[in-house]
Amino acid sequence: MNKSELIEAFAAQRDISHKRAEEVVNMIFNSMSEAMINGERIEIRGLGSFVVKEYGAYTGRNPKTGEPIKVNPKKLPFFKVGKELKERIFG
Fold it and tell me: Using CA atoms in the order 52, 57, 59, 62, what is the torsion angle rounded to 10 degrees?
């Protein structure tokens, strides 16, 4: 399911306009993004949690040449599936 399909499903389930459903979905995604930008952890019971993991600098290798390259520190979003969702998927 992509974002537009989520908006369509939400609009149909709640019997609201597509425009209003899109506003609600965008508001939720924007709030989640802002929280993660601010270093906050997001936990949605029954689904899972979103955190930002920080990775330090390291020396990697160029896959074409094998030459060592310096990789700068970075932050990446990470999703950890919740117990309830995991049980629903895997039985």
Answer: 50
